[in-house]
Amino acid sequence: MILIGMFDSPFVRRVAVSMKLLGIEFEHRDWSVGSDFERIRQYNPLGRVPTLVQPDGEALIESSAILDFLDERAGPERALLPQSGKDRRDALRIMAVATGAAEKGVTQLYETVFRPQEKRYPPWTERCATQMHAALAELDRLVMDRSSKGGDGWLIGKRLSQADITATCVYTFLADALAINREGVVYPALAGIAARCEALPEFRAVKVEFFPPGKGG
Questions:
Q1: What is d(CA 177, CA 214) in angstroms, rounded to the nearest whole number?
Q2: What is the model's pTM?
Q3: At 69, is the pLDDT very low, low, confident or very high (cuts 50, 70, 90)?
Q4: Percent of the chain, pLDDT > 90?
Q5: Which listed CATH number (3.40.50.970, 3.40.30.10, 3.30.70.100, 3.80.30.20) goes with 2-79?
Q6: Pick from 214, 213, 177, 131: which is nearest to 7 by CA?
Q7: Cα separation of 138 and 186, whole Å?
Q8: I need a labelling partner for 144 at 20 to 30 A (CA). Which of 36, 115, 202, 212 fits?
Q9: pLDDT higher than 90, residue 65
Q10: What topology is assigned to 85-203 in CATH?
């Protein structure tokens, strides 16, 4: 299988980390939606990442759909997202909040990477920043709530799940790309679980290299 997209994208990275954790081999195409847009469109008409190309040539798009495919392939005992019940609902909620924060962060970033300065609209980026920080604060609260109830260090159940993977990939992306802690806004609980995940070999194997202005991600 071929995974298309740069690891600076939290959406690409959460797929890559999941594949490492599940022992699914893949070839990585480090393509940017900025400079490699037309190459990506050969596999995904939207020109978006991640795109996962299967051996038969079929391309899966959107990280949530790809993760669902990977869990189905791994089987219920190894799947990274709980199969049903409250654990599944809680995990999906955490993932929705995290990806929402990432989307608002990407919007802010693209305002500086792709849009000329004279065409930027500060009230819009400020609104996105407010939404992003609200989502991060909610994630931080959820991590603290889990810890206060005697949790064993993971967000869902007794082992690492897709909730931990997604929250970590998003936090690391925003910390690197937007320096979210530079204004004294700190999310200690979220940072703690991210540090635990980032210490794992599967995360270290999928390194984040933040892209320079103008390259896109």
A1: 13
A2: 0.91
A3: very high
A4: 75
A5: 3.40.30.10
A6: 177
A7: 12
A8: 202
A9: yes
A10: Glutathione S-transferase Yfyf (Class Pi); Chain A, domain 2 (1.20.1050)
pLDDT digits (tens, 9 = 90+) for 97-108: 999 999 999 999
> Which helix (H) or strand (E) is 53 found in, with range?
strand 51-53
Q: How many CA atoms lie within 13 A of 69 on its CB side?
A: 17
DSSP class per residue in 92-148: HHHHHHHHHHHHHHHHHHHHHHTS-GGG--HHHHHHHHHHHHHHHHHHHHHHHHHHH
- Residues in contact with 153: Cβ distance below 8 Å, sequence separation at least 6, in sequence order: 147, 193, 196
How much is the pLDDT for 209? 64
